[in-house]
Amino acid sequence: MKKWKSGILGCMVCLLFFSTPFQAIAAEISSSDATSGSASAITLNEVGKSNVRLDLNKKQSHRRNVGKYNNIVNHMNQSKQVYASTADDNSDPNGASYLPFNEATGDAIDTEGGSRWYGVVADETCRITTLMVASDPSSDFDLYIYKLDEATGTLDNIGYSCQEAGNDEKVDLIVNEGVYYIQVNAYTGTGTFGLVSYQSINYISREINDTIGTATAISKSCTLTDAIDSPLDMDIYKFSITTEASRKSFTLANPENCNYALYIVTSDNSIYSINSGVTYSLGNGDYYLIVTTSDGTYSNAAPYTVAVTNQDSVLGGTDLLSYNGYLVQQVGANYYINGKLIDFSFSYKYDISAGADYLHASMTLSTKANTSVKNFADEQSLGISFIKYTSTFNGSARDVALFIPIQNVSYTYYRTASASLAPTYVFDSRSVAEAYLIVDVNTGKVIDLFSPNWYYESSASHHSHGIGAVYATSIAQ
Question: What's the confidence (pLDDT) of residue 14?
Fold first, then answer.
């Protein structure tokens, strides 16, 4: 088995991990001081035009006529490990060095036109991402990938990257089980280089979607589940807006110990950072959503999710608050969530009988002509808020619900039961100065009364409720 040249290994490993295209864009964005999500900021944060280092529209500048390599003998032993046979070094495919996946290494080419060869072994269908970085920006090194035809002993070229000098070379492939050869060729110049090949087996059904041309088309509202399988990976999704404008939010959930970021590329090739859960107003056109690592962390086993939510809205409505893809608006005395009118009324009825036993109960909240949402003047009281709601009554618990305080309503509660189902009679009817509603964020319907509510106020009901969390919103109340 060939060994790596130890003298340059350390410096080339550093070179690989400090010059990837994704660290370049992360540095750009961190220096832009982008802060979206203020009361009126539903615009995107521009961080610069896309460039070749982002690899969004990869262009090849040249390519050698590599053809086939014939009569490759002694290329494998019985354990499918590539090893040197006839060559003194790995300048020939017969002397290819075995390259473990996910391990960076370094080498050198001291003759213009010369090559270095490596081999990797795929035990099953997988994605292979190979990156080569030349240390001298004036040297133009190219990258080629070959599949070994084990029946004929020949190498077939299946991928290449031949950009101009000064650019990293990267090849992404979905491959089947087999032996694959990597060639680093000095098109012009000489010098050292770094090389790494990442393998991913999981979450590759949408791959390869790392460029604008290979982006995965998505619908206007969906949940994406995929993995960032290497520090080089970018998942790019395309969506189109055909109406005059659309409100969208993009909510990212990272796997444990990973830090990913979201970006949008517009039709004019501008790149913007976007904040998870914030609502953005987008005009007509094509857009590309990018998910990538922000600091080099990744997991090819644990997926991320991105919830893409299309927010319906009311024309001319005033935006009050937004969270996780939900937008609350006001038009006069009416309130809307994602374009659905919120109905403040609520009624609950329960009837059961078994033999001589029976229970009849009802609870109603009715609006009046002067019913309105209560505006709190101090910060001690909770106004309209997105909350996590816990309750043992009426199946109304929600991870995300809307809390709304209203004033000037009528409340009625009635309960009657047989002697064995105490109490036998309860009646409560009154005007209420303040009531607190729990609203379903998807329908705009009231699903529970936080207060007044006999079931929580009476010790006889054995029910409880509470607010588990108040979520931070992106639009000031």
Answer: 38
Which residue from 260, 256, 259 is spatially nearest to 302, judged by alpha carbons?
256
Q: Is the pLDDT of residue 279 over 60?
A: yes
Residue 25: which H helix or E strand, with range?
helix 21-32
Whose CA is closest to 448, among 474, 466, 421?
466
User: Mean pLDDT highest for which of 11-15, 51-55, 212-216, 457-461?
Assistant: 212-216
- The secondary structure of 218-244 as a DSSP string is --SSEEEEE---STT-EEEEEEEEEEE
Q: Residue 27: exposed, middle, or buried by beta-carbon count in 10 A (0-12, 13-18, 19+)?
A: exposed
Name all contacts of 155-162 with Cβ < 8 Å and 24+ positions apart.
155/68, 155/69, 155/72, 155/93, 155/181, 156/68, 157/66, 157/67, 157/68, 160/60, 160/63, 160/66, 161/58, 161/60, 161/132, 162/60, 162/61, 162/62, 162/63, 162/64, 162/187
In this prediction, residues 67-79 reach a mean pLDDT of 38
Q: Which residue has the tokens 């409880």?
A: 464
Q: Which residues are paired to 185 by β-bridges?
A: 115, 142
The residues, any chain, with a CB within 8 Å of residue 386's CB and separated by 6 or more, are 321, 323, 324, 326, 400, 401, 402, 403, 441, 470, 471, 473
20 or 142, greater pLDDT: 142
**Has residue 27 got a pLDDT over 50?**
no
Average pLDDT over residues 98-106: 90
- Per the listing, tokens 């705009």 go with 444
The Cα 244–Cα 186 span in angstroms is: 51
Q: Concatenated DSSP letters for 314-352?
A: -TTPEEEEEETTEEEEEETTEEEETTEEPB--EEEEEEE
**Domains in the chain: boundaries:** 59-200, 212-311, 323-470
CATH number of 59-200: 2.60.120.380
Supply the pLDDT for residue 351: 83
Identical fold for domains 59-200 and 212-311, yes or no, is yes
User: Lowest-confidence range among 60-69, 89-98, 156-165?
Assistant: 60-69
Q: Give yes or no for residue 191 having a pLDDT over 60.
A: yes
Nearest 5°: phi and psi at 88? -70, -30
CA distance 260 to 257: 10
What sections of 270-311 are H helices per DSSP? none
Helices within 320-457 (DSSP H only): 454-457
pTM above 0.70, yes or no: no
Read off the pLDDT band of 432 (50, 70, 90): confident
R_g of the chain, CA atoms, integer Å:
31
> Class of the 212-311 domain?
mainly beta
